[in-house]
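Researcher: Structure prediction, please.
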Amino acid sequence: MKADKRQAYREKLLALRERIGGEVNYVVEALQEDVNFNENVSSAPVHLADVAEDSVEADVEILHTTRSILDEVNAALARLDEGTFGVCVECGTTISEERLNAIPYTAYCVRCARSAEQPAASITEEGS
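Model: Predicted structure follows.
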């Protein structure tokens, strides 16, 4: 990959990291507010605590997903530094520009990403 393309992806990844970092901070603040709300709920017969608990669970799920993407962005930046960015970590083929433009932090080509998703989908279907 040419230096100018690497630099363009680096800038895209850094901007994404900054944006996602802000989202992580926002969710952490929302979690803190939900926890504070739970602590201050009276013993009234209204089930506000149940509503707040659901909100906390949703925030935790969002936080987990967002941090996972942030980890992937950081790993992509590391691959840029190592010179392996744009190469599938599974099969070693070049990841298409279309895929990198859509998901700049991806570590997998389309074929390997699809094969990784299929076992999870069949497990989910069996468990239903």
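Model: The two ends are 44 Å apart (CA to CA).
Researcher: Thanks, that helps.
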